[in-house]
Design goal:
Helices cover about 70% and strands about 0% of the residues. It is an all-alpha fold. It starts with 7 loop residues before the first helix and ends in a 17-residue tail after the last helix.
Length: about 190
């Protein structure tokens, strides 16, 4: 086998396979880098929110000067943290689910259940997307009370979230249809996420 020569077709197939493997490795590396940057953004937002919370305590209780901007900043960052994290940081198996029936089902039934749920999510978000986009762009006329952040900028994270969820579930459907593994439910590993 070592001394055997490959035909031109076999050599071409091997070169394509090698190129595909290199491409997959590069995409995985880039994806990992992007994931870490998304986590960094999330951590930075959490740090700013915590600092605003501490500033609110200092101004209100130590200096007796209540501020509205710190509360507003905390609320805005909370919205962004939740939606940014759900869009880019949270893994599929980390999402909260009511999986009593899903966990008890056979893998083939789980695959069908997943596909039905994923298609429903994609369809619902896709159908709502034009209205969401219209509402977010309409909100450019309003600003927050203290920081004067336009509401279209504030709510733009929801548009990003919707697009990310649609893309994620289309990708997951594709993986499941191609026979990719579903995340197995292990009740011994179930936790509160803490």
């Amino acid at each position: 086998m070592l001394g055997r020569r490959l035909s031109a077709g076999q050599a071409y197939a091997c070169s394509l396979e090698g190129g595909t493997t290199i491409l997959k490795r590069q995409l995985k590396r880039i994806g990992g880098w992007l994931y870490r940057r998304a986590e960094n953004v999330l951590a930075a937002m959490l740090a700013v929110m915590f600092a605003a919370f501490l500033a609110q305590i200092v101004f209100r209780y130590l200096l007796n000067l209540p501020t509205g901007w710190s509360n507003e900043l905390s609320v805005v960052l909370w919205i962004w943290i939740v939606l940014w994290g759900a869009a880019f940081v949270l893994h599929e198996e980390e999402e909260i689910r009511f999986d009593l029936f899903y966990a008890a089902a056979r893998p083939s039934v789980r695959r069908i259940m997943f596909l039905i749920a994923a298609v429903a999510v994609v369809v619902l978000y896709a159908v709502s997307f034009p209205a969401v986009l219209d509402y977010v762009t309409f909100m450019k006329v309003e600003k927050t009370a203290y920081l004067k952040i336009r509401f279209d900028w504030l709510f733009s994270i929801y548009v990003v979230f919707v697009v990310a969820v649609i893309v994620r579930y289309i990708w997951l459907c594709w993986q499941v249809l191609r026979g990719g593994p579903l995340a197995e439910f292990d009740p011994n590993k179930a936790s509160s996420g803490v």
